[in-house]
Amino acid sequence: MRLRQRASNEVLQPLMEPILHPSQWRIRALGVSTFLGHPLFYVVWAWWLPQPYENLLLRALMALCGLSLLVLPGVRVSPPTRGAAVTFSLIFWLTLPWFFWWMYFCNSGNAVWLASLGAAMLIYYHLTDWRLATLGCATGLLFAWLCFEAVGPAVPALGFAQAATNTVVLSFSWFMGLVLGLSSSNLRREQLNYTLGTMGIMAHELRTPLATMQLIAEAVRNEAPQYAGESGERLQQLGTRLNTLVRNMNHQIDMQITNARLMRPIGNPERISAAQLVREAIDAYPYRSTREKQAVVLRIYGDFHFYGSRDMFHQVVDNLTKNALRSLAAASSSPQPGDLLIEVGAHGARGRIAFTDNGVGMDAELRKRIFQPFVSTDRGTGHGLGLAFCQRVVNGAHGTIRVKAAPHKGAVFTIELPVA
Q1: Which domain holds residue 211?
Q2: Which of 190, 301, 306, 312 has its CA 20 to 30 A from that of 260?
């Protein structure tokens, strides 16, 4: 059972791939090495140390793939778009497993291309996620062999002894690439867990000074009635503002601690009333002003129950409310009642919670990446974990969360959950 759980965590549980995408500097380094390396090795293998088969046109195509990493701006976006990630993966599938398997077949599996193919496998596993590398190695082998059978040169077949020797060497290279890929993946996950855990600890440690500030605020408010006139009113306002500040800070700490659970187990589910959950969450939300609070309108067309973590779903509602109110604040006009409409209803076996705001919206590029870790709707101060956390919690309850948005036309975040 423990082995099955461990295998499931490694293979089936999605890792946070976008944050593992190479940095801009690394992509440039890979582009330069690919762009210059292929012409250089063509000179080596064609003129200096001639190999049975070299193809200038194919080398030029591989070099152009490296050049594309330098000239295509979308590939270097961080965090990457889905298109950029696909482009990056395709380029290195073509220049590593496919190309090296092709050259291996064309050169009858000689010592040079046996060593080169083994090195290419290790490089490929280092460049990308181990699952993608495993799939890429297998498909690269298949497509290279099909291409070789269709248009490859006529070369002597490998003898049994050479084929067996090469198989052992390549199997060892593949196995070590897989092991190193798994260990790197686990190390990155542990580093992320440590970082998020540290965020939670630091946020929790702020509770003590905030508690002291809360006591001071209450003391100031209690002393205010002893002073008549304007002085007493100022003390009362000061105490109220300090109390509101502490409340807002505690709310932010709750969010940071919950977001620090991003890659941790969801916990035991409980049966939750959607209407009650949403009502409690928006009532407890620390609005910055009365006008902001009045902008939120809740409509319950029909209650439904679902299974999940109450605390985490409370945080989901908080995160979506916070994002919507920030979007409204960024709009040019002051918020009006109904600018954030929260709707709860059910249809058949599916329950629905929708957050519709009249804020600044978002463009198509941001909308595609909005649920990726460290992609924030608030480019100024957002850490980009809130919506990734929301998606993980909703998915953990076997539900879905999606967004519809356009620039300057607001956004609609819709949660659908199975009715319990």
Answers
A1: 206-259
A2: 306
Q: Which region holds residue 379: left if phi is over 0, alpha if psi is between -120 and 50, else beta? A: alpha
Pick from 410, 254, 416: nearest CA to 340: 410
pTM attached to this predicted model: 0.60
Would you say residue 251 has pLDDT above 50?
Answer: yes
The reply to whether 238 and 151 lie within a common domain is no
Instruction: Please say whether the beta carbons of 396 and 311 come within 8 A.
Output: no
pLDDT at 255: 65
Can you tell me which residue has the tokens 């998915």?
395
pLDDT at residue 2 greater than cutoff 60 = no
Listed range (271-280, 332-341, 350-359) with the worst mean pLDDT:
332-341
Q: Same domain, yes or no, for 254 and 279?
A: no
Residues 50 and 173 in one domain: yes
Q: Give how far the C-alpha of residue 393 lies from the chain's centroid of Cα atoms, to the nearest Å.
A: 14
With CA atoms as reference, report the closest residue to 120 among 91, 100, 94.
Answer: 100
- Residue 199 belongs to some domain of the structure: no
Tokens of 381: 């101060």
Query: In angstroms, rounded to a whole number, what is the distance separating the alpha carbons of residues 41 and 35?
Result: 11
Both structure tokens of 275: 């209407």
- Whole-number Å distance between alpha carbons of 103 and 113: 7
Q: Which residue from 384, 391, 328 is spatially nearest to 356, judged by alpha carbons?
A: 328
Choose between 81 and 168: higher pLDDT: 168
Residue 304 backbone zone (phi > 0: left; psi -120 to 50: alpha; other: beta): beta
Rg of the chain on CA atoms, in Å: 29
Share in percent of the chain as helix, strand, coil (round to 5): 65, 10, 25
Beta bridge partners of 347: 350
DSSP 3-state of 303: coil
